[in-house]
Amino acid sequence: MDKTGIAALIVGIVLLVLGAYAIWAFLPEVIKAVEGLIGIVVLLAGLMLIIFGILIFKE
């Protein structure tokens, strides 16, 4: 493994640890964000189904 691979591995491990700590420290906000993202995904899926239905209905 060359120096770039080792550096990438070390930076990746550090970012993983910092990210896990941030999630643990701000857990209620993370849960709210995930709930919001789920809502956005459901909204976009519904919008795509409506557009798909309109396209199918026109044919």
Q: What are the defining features of this structure?
A:
59 residues; 2 helices; 0% strand
Task: Explain what this protein looks like in three dimensions.
The protein has helices at 3-25, 27-58. The relative contact order is 0.06. The protein starts with a helix and ends with a helix. The chain is elongated, with a radius of gyration of 21 Å. The chain has 59 residues and is mainly alpha-helical.
Low-confidence stretches: none
Shape: elongated
How much helicity do the residues have?
over 70%
Radius of gyration: 21 Å
Multimeric status of the protein: single chain
Summary?
The chain is mainly α and 59 residues long.
SSE layout:
Elements: H1 3-25, H2 27-58
